[in-house]
User: Fold this.
Amino acid sequence: MQYMFLIYSAEGSGPQQGTPEFQEMMNGYMSFTNGVRDAGIFEAGAPLEGIDTATTVRVRGGAAQTTDGPFAETKEVLGGYYILDCKDLDEALAHAAKIPTAAYGSIEVRPVMQM
Amino acid sequence: MARVRDLELAEDALQDALVAALKTWPAKGVPDSPRAWLLKVALNRAVDRIRRSANFAEKREQYGTMLQLDQMTEPQETDHDIPDERLRLICTCCHPALGEPAQVALTLKTVGGLSTGEIARAFLVAEETMAQRLVRAKRKIKAANIPYLVPGAEAWPERLDAVLAVIYLIFNEGYAASSGDAHVRGDLCREAVRLGDILHQLLPRETEVGGLLALMMLSDARRPARVERAGELITMERQDRRLWDQAQIKRGASLLIATLARGNIGPFQVQAAISAVHCEAPAYAATDWKQICLLYEKLYELQPSPIVALNAAVALSFACSAEAGLKSIEDLTASGELEHYQSYHVARADMLARAGRTGEAADAYRAAIALTENTAERRHLASRLEALNDTSHSRHSRESGNPEPRQ
Assistant:
């Protein structure tokens, strides 16, 4: 059985970059990742760029609508995810518009942080 | 910009190059290919800046760029060889993944060359707020990898629409002056016309670009007559038509004729044609309202929005009667769709006043005043309301002007 883990937190609520607390948190992430990797249960995982970089795509009446920012409809719940390797945001947005749920829900496109 | 792939770095490097030009050119003379000279110096400075960058992570990220730049030694380019970067820049600035305020600010900053302070003043926000908006937009371009290119055929119509919308938004911010100091706003109109002109030079075959430019030129030509010294807005009926810029009207009209001849009609071209009919009338009473009605019908076909329906009704009220105009928006009134739209109440108030329905007209003026932020326009509407009371006994009002149709 595969499970997806969705990591939520308010922007800026955690330890700030450059502080010892931040380093401690990063060490925590590293040991967690290594732990699940060693246990052979790691499938995929990566941090995302900030909410500032999000773009949302919806298809209504057959036309793709692109807006700045994350999805905002609180009734919509996360139903799945893809990680695709695209050459730029335009290519990513073109794929997003082809995901069937875009026709009634929203697809939030966020760059995966380069590590 | 295409070569350094970082808007902030590109800006800084060009800034350096311009400073170098100011130091060198007066003494040594302007080089034969000034653009090529600037580009070469800017590229060198970009490399320097990356080398100097204190942040190691950033350095590593840009190291590849630096190597690439270094390999482009002594580019033997002349001005002629450099492709026009402005279209790509405009497309990036108006990318739909950026918010509208960010699109407008970025376009004015990078294509229009306005300073952050100037843009902040024009949009009535603190300079710091505008600076943050720009930084955030540039950061998103970089982090989300918004491409720096002219989109392919498939995405082109939608993206061109987005670019035109941004330029028209800049124009309207200056023209309609929803709030604030009228003087700064006029600069925005001129800037929008200039941006439209650049785009038209880059895309001479796109008829809607020609249509938008003609529309802005024709509207802007009437601007000197629109505002009194006290900042009061003057309706088209009371405008001194001698103040209209006839040379610009002529340029706008001939651009429109040339554009329409290409036979690819669109909403901006129809709006420009409506504006041209207004400009051609030697006096308000001589306005060809029948022609304007037909054009609004065409516009509604292309763009069936309640606002177009409202403007069509105003034209009809002059071509036929105020009652006919009111009748044509009965459905709109019943739906309450434009209840929060100030121009709807102004237009309706005027038609009601002309139809002699004074009580209803007064209510509509009050609704309009409640929705008006611009102080000059508030004063103007209040004087209309007052005039309504003065003339409620005699139907022949001194000034039964209609608001200038707006899209």
About this structure: DSSP finds two helices and three strands in chain A. Residues 13-43 of chain A form one domain. The helical segments of chain A are 20-38, 89-98. The CA atoms of residues 11 and 50 of chain A lie 8 Å apart.
